[in-house]
Amino acid sequence: xxxxxxxxxxxxxxxxxxxxxxxxxxxxxxxxxxxxxxxxxxxxxxxxxxxxxxxxxxxxxxxxxxxxxxxxxxxxxxxxxxxxxxxxxxxxxxxxxxxxxxxxxxxxxxxxxxxxxxxxxxxxxxxxxxxxxxxxxxxxxxxxxxxxxxxxxxxxxxxxxxxxxxxxxxxxxxxxxxxxxxxxxxxxxxxxxxxxxxxxxxxxxxxxxxxxxxxxxxxxxxxxxxxxxxxxxxx
Amino acid sequence: xxxxxxxxxxxxxxxxxxxxxxxxxxxxxxxxxxxxxxxxxxxxxxxxxxxxxxxxxxxxxxxxxxxxxxxxxxxxxxxxxxxxxxxxxxxxxxxxxxxxxxxxxxxxxxxxxxxxxxxxxxxxxxxxxxxxxxxxxxxxxxxxxxxxxxxxxxxxxxxxxxxxxxxxxxxxxxxxxxxx
Lengths: 235, 180
Hints:
The complex is a heterodimer.
Chain A: E1 4-5, E2 35-36, E3 75-83, E4 94-99, E5 124-128, E6 134-140, E7 145-147, E8 153-155, E9 158-163, E10 172-177, H1 188-191, H2 195-198, E11 204-205, E12 216-219, E13 222-223, E14 227-228
Parallel strand pairs in A: 3-12, 3-13
Antiparallel strand pairs in A: 1-14, 3-6, 4-5, 4-9, 7-8, 9-10, 11-12
Chain B: H1 21-24, E1 50-55, E2 57-58, E3 68-75, E4 80-86, E5 95-100, E6 112-118, E7 125-131, H2 141-144, H3 148-151, E8 155-159, E9 162-164, E10 167-168, E11 178-179
Parallel strand pairs in B: 1-9, 2-10, 7-8
Antiparallel strand pairs in B: 1-5, 3-4, 3-6, 6-7, 8-9
């Protein structure tokens, strides 16, 4: 494995800190210019996963919180590949996800939306990528829900993702969306991303991931910042 | 010189939102899902020199934020540690971590990397914790690269309870955030 090469956030693809249409950014976005630093040992290393062992159902949100029976909603498979910016797969990296249930309700105590909780659904899961950078979750398609950003504001259906990669700069928190969601055009969180970056967060329906008679499959590939040094073809 | 390596576009970042707790910090918030990481970065029975780092995260109006998540990443070559904690499980919106102070690397002042996430941040913020009782702060290359009047914003103050490190997202006391 070659040396790790850092890449900055590509601001032609990444959202800015401050996006006034998404109102909470106004008091929470840093306002002063960021300071550029030299990379040291501490930035060069990823987290330690200690002795933690994933539970056998951690990747299956349709089963990891069952109390009385199956959760309600449309069962789906979400799968994809995690790579760096040169397309090199990132194996053995932790992916954590969380989401609303089929009714658009989060189990989180502060969610005020008047929609039912599902006693058989938590909405949180995690898995490690395999040797080729691939991951797979089973879950329930999340519902849309209202939020307080502006009058009649509704979030498009989405699943939250958290990823690590090899070091502190590859850390990513993002949201996966579903194809052709009619709420995209009204959502200031999605639209804070520059136009050409938006489709990168939209999963695609994929029959090769779909499990016949069981669950529709959505593909969501993820590219983390940075890459390993690779030799030039021509010098 | 040409290269055939094609750069793939980075997956854009999105906010962590207000509801991350049951997924990322479940045990801290009392959810029935096992946490793989928390704010106890070291085992105090095995480490004599543990320190507590605590503080709050403030928005541009000076209100303590109750839905931020903080990660600490440290590595001095000998000890590599990682911690994670939310600011919403304590009535006064504190975070706290139990860790050890990292050693100096290459003559630099010891520090811990911090990542701050919250609703209202579309991209996470990177900062660092330095320590007020370190002489190396005076000669540290990173601290010196920061305007003098802002250096104190990333130096944790030694108190009788450990080290206090408050994060100000905006305003006169705005914390120094880094481009990493």
